[in-house]
Amino acid sequence: MKILLTNDDGVFAPGLSAMAEAALTLSDEVTVVAPSSNRSAASHSLTVESPLRMQRLTGAFPHISQLQGVYSVHGTPVDCIHLAMAECLSERPDLVISGINAGPNLGDDVFYSGTVAAAMTARALGIPAVAVSLNRERALYGEAAKSVIDIIRYFESTLLDSEHLWNINIPAIEKDQLKGWLWTRLGRRHPSEPIVKTQDPRGRTIFWVGAPGEQADAGKGTDFYAIEHGYISISPLKMDLTDYDGLAKLQLMKSPDVEPLV
Ligand code: MN
Fold first, then answer.
1. CA of 255 to the centre of ligand 1 (A)
2. What is the distance between the alpha carbons of residues 74 and 84, in angstroms, rounded to a whole number?
3. Angstrom distance (rounded) from CA 146 to CA 25
4. How close is the Cα of 192 to the center of ligand 1, in Å?
5. Is the peptide bond before 100 cis (omega within 30 degrees of 0)?
6. What's the 259 CA to ligand 1 centre distance in angstroms?
7. Residue 123 Cα, ligand 1 centroid: separation in angstroms?
8. Can you tell me the distance from the alpha carbon of 225 to that of 169, in angstroms, rounded to the nearest whole number?
9. Do 5 and 30 meet the contact criterion of CB atoms below 8 Å apart?
10. pLDDT of residue 4
11. Beta bridge partners of 133
């Protein structure tokens, strides 16, 4: 199985190297293409007003000799997917794994997450993809990465046939305390904390984007519920954001002056 790994925390993030190490137990065709710096919350952004620079690393990455290549891209996670396809890989990968992200990507987080966006971009290109996030920034990446590989092995044929991106969130607990996994829908958060207005050391006004909001819809069946109760959460996601109920209602509205096109 040819595997492409990326993330949004940057090529030297511990979650990425842990995922690379675990992926090597599944395949000897693993390539890493990741941003050179932390691009968390980059969502689907592409770099279009400046050139992309890419460097093939020759050391300083764990297990680099067993990997097909490790590339650092001065760009976003979505740039990485496109560059990987165009330049780094000789063949299409069978699977893209994005992560392991430092921190959860639950509910509304998926709209902002670069981790999820990279996997979504792969999925849009027709490549099976998983986004993986660890609930809290704790040194449990190795355990979490092994769980991801367990899931991929167990569901391999389903995953490789799936038309959805699988958004996986892992609770920050020891592997032997995990209760298993649950298929979940996205929950919802309250609005994020307000912008923080402050000053830099030179007295100039600066702003910090506020922290994500607390959970709002976290009931049974949601991703929030699963990880709070010791389960790995797996949510199948698709790109089509159309509100089909809303569309049906709008299409029922009659206009006296305009003939509907369909
Ligand atoms: Mn991140």
1. 47
2. 13
3. 9
4. 17
5. yes
6. 48
7. 19
8. 11
9. yes
10. 98
11. 101, 169
Instruction: Measure 219 CA to ligand 1 centroid, in angstroms.
Output: 25
Residues 6+ apart with CB under 8 A from 61: 11, 12, 17, 20, 32, 67, 70
pLDDT tens digits for range 187-246:
999 999 999 999 999 999 999 999 999 999 999 999 999 999 999 999 999 999 999 999
Task: Supply the pTM of this predicted model.
Answer: 0.94
Contact 10, 36 (CB under 8 A): yes
Site of tokens 């660890």: 134
The whole-angstrom separation of Cα 96 and Cα 260 is 42
Residue 217 CB-density burial (10 A; 0-12 exposed, 13-18 middle, 19+ buried)? middle
Instruction: Measure 248 CA to ligand 1 centroid, in angstroms.
Output: 37
- Phi-psi category of residue 103: left, alpha or beta, with phi > 0 → left and psi -120 to 50 → alpha: left
Q: Which two tokens stand for residue 158?
A: 């389903």
